[in-house]
Amino acid sequence: MAIFTKGVHCGSCNLKMNLFCYLSDEQLDIINNDRYEVHFHKGEVIFKQGGPLTHIACLTSGLAKVYIEGHDKKNMILKVLKPTELVGGPGFTVDYRQHFSVSTLSESSACLIDIRAFEKMIKTNAEFSFAFIKYLNETTIALHDKLMNLTHKQMHGRIADTLLYLSKEIYRSSTFDTPLTRQDLADMSAMTKESAIRILKELKDDNIIDFNSSGFNILNEPGLIQISITG
Amino acid sequence: MAIFTKGVHCGSCNLKMNLFCYLSDEQLDIINNDRYEVHFHKGEVIFKQGGPLTHIACLTSGLAKVYIEGHDKKNMILKVLKPTELVGGPGFTVDYRQHFSVSTLSESSACLIDIRAFEKMIKTNAEFSFAFIKYLNETTIALHDKLMNLTHKQMHGRIADTLLYLSKEIYRSSTFDTPLTRQDLADMSAMTKESAIRILKELKDDNIIDFNSSGFNILNEPGLIQISITG
DNA sequence: AAATCATGTTGACATTTGTCATTATTTTTC
DNA sequence: GAAAAATAATGACAAATGTCAACATGATTT
Q1: Which of A70, B20, B95, B144 is the most exposed place for a label (fewest CB within 10 A)?
Q2: pLDDT of A190-223, one tens digit each?
Q3: How far is the C-alpha of A215 from the C-alpha of A230, rounded, in Å?
């Protein structure tokens, strides 16, 4: 678990950017007063599944993965987190335990917000609460989408979805270098790493994508989208 | 879509049972004033995916299924709804469209609550809003669970999960008769109906379960749980 | 530079799962 | 009650996917 080495105020994380814009200056002060910036090395765990939910995190630099840990190292990566996204956890208001793990894919920083301060805002500011409900519902819609993609598409479609997600949502570029390993790509696509490698090779052979040690390049995005649709 | 044949006040749906217990009598009056009870025949659609989200429903009698419609009639049943459960929809606060369909599995009644009245309660009552957030988070936890089960378990484990869900959560009995078809059981377990039939037969041959035209009987629950775990 | 370790790749093979055709059974309709 | 339609069941087969073993590559340590 994250250790608060020092109480450094997090200046790089402008809370007003997120749903915190609904807070009054006074309320913002309350949250600002006990939030801390923590630096994480590559591969370190920010939140651990099963552990206590004491804080909400806002990734301020670097990249992280949010994943559910299953049996036999069979993990499922729910999403990739980039600055300056929030990550809470559905245990909030329920059992105050983490229902997924979050770990960094590169050197990263995160701003940790005390869950009690967050909870107070929810209970005292209805606009803020409403915005948070919207955030939760958007998460649910994304989860539904993932559920359908992973259960109703074959491997080619699932890998296409993963590549399009990285290209469009995370890196916003048709070429990108990524610290995600083949195992990570497999964990995002619900398959073994061997299968992921095979499908990637096929897509490369068909000139839909290209890749080497320095990253991926989507050569034929319409083709990749077609594969994503036909599954 | 549901047609409001008549403005019949819904007496059988005691809103105080659900999260509505956080409302003041005054607020409860506001919601009570424009809610209606509607009867649905077996197989009728209460909410249609893609359609407008104008109401929240509380099933007051009967049974319904909540499902995402995919391509080629490949549906995914998210949950079975029984009295007196609420069903909203993640489109609330987002795009005000339905992101899943709800249809009845038997003759049913539902109490429909205007989404604007509901939204007003969210915005004016922080305790209510907090309870609703808890409800949303519980839904998300259940979705995570489903995602893991469906992507990381083989068919035997998935069918076992479905049977245990029906037995424990829905019917609360080791024997139950259900209007769910084999296709429905398959749609809950992310497989084809032929596969569902085959697995059910295997479980029957192994004396883990029994079934006939009048319903299911779980003979060896520990065995079924073991299958669910080893997947 | 050698050694070690993590990650990536490939091939052979077994298993799982879906598809399709066919027949039985049940339910609904007339 | 007969006919039609929906649902259930079964078998043969093909396709998708995982498993395992082997080896390659690259990064890190010594």
Answers
A1: B95
A2: 999 999 999 999 999 999 999 998 899 999 999 9
A3: 26
